[in-house]
Amino acid sequence: MATTKAPDAGRRSDRSRRAIHDAALALVTEQGYRRTTIEGIAARAGVGKQTIYRWWPSKAAVLMDAFLDLAGRTAEDAGGAPEPDGAASSGGSAPGFPDTGDLAADLKTVLRATVDELNNPVLEAVTRALTAEGIVDAKLGAEFVQQLLDPQLALYVTRLRAAQEAGHVRAEIDPRIALELLIGPLMHRWLLRTLPLTHAYADEVVDYAVGGLTPRA
User: Fold this and answer.
1) Angle in degrees, CA 63, 68, 70, rounded to 5
2) CATH code for 82-213?
3) Nearest-angstrom CA–CA distance, 29 and 47
4) Helix (H/G/I), strand (E/B), else coil: 89
5) pTM over 0.85
6) Residues 99-132: pLDDT tens digits?
7) Burial of 122 (0-12, 13-18, 19+ CB in 10 A)
8) Residue environment code for 75-113, b if the CB has 16+ CB neighbours within 10 A, otherwise e
9) Where are the domains of the chain?
10) Which residues, as ranges, make up the DNA-binding region of this protein (predicted)?
C-alpha cells in the first residue's frame, strides 16, 4: 500500500512568508503605504489575515521584515556578481566596500550604487514608507537604523579608517561624522525631491567632501 508523505510545514510556512513579503512590497509600490492594509496584503498573498497577525503585530512590522528580506536577497545577488572594474579589494576595507587605494574613486562607486538604489521604484517606495513611519514609531525607527542603516554605515567607517592609516585622510577626522558629509546630501535631495538624484551629483558630493578630508600642506 502506497504511503502518503506528510506535507512539510516548514516549507509551507516559508512559502507563505515569502508570498506575504512580496505582496507587501508590491502593494506599497503600487498604491503607497497609507493605502496598503493587512487585509490587502493577505488577499494578495493568498493567506488568511490571522496568518499575518500570527507572525507580525502590524503592517509596519510586515514591511520592515519584507524590506530586510529583500535587502538580504539583493546583497546575495550582488555577492555572486563580478566586482566592478577597479573595485577589487586590496584587503584594507570591509567586504562590500571597494578599496583600490583611491578613496575618491571608491566612494564614487558606492555612492553611485546608492543613487541607483534610491531611484529604484520598489526600494524607493518601501524606504520612504519606513523612513516616514519610523519618525512617529520610535521602536520601528530604532529597528530600521539598527538592522539596516548601521551595518551599511559601518562599511564607510572601516573604509575611511583604512584611508587614515594610509595617510589619505587626516588623522583627526572622525569617520562617523565624515561619512555624514557623503550620505547626508544624497538623503536630503532624495527626501525633499528638490532636484534630480544623479551619478553626477554623487560624484560632486565626493569631490567636495574628500577635498576637506585630505591632509593639508
Assistant:
1) 90
2) 1.10.357.10
3) 20
4) coil
5) no
6) 999 999 999 999 999 999 899 877 888 888 888 8
7) middle
8) eeeeeeeeeeeeeeeeebbbeebbbbeebbebbbbbbbe
9) 82-213
10) 37-56
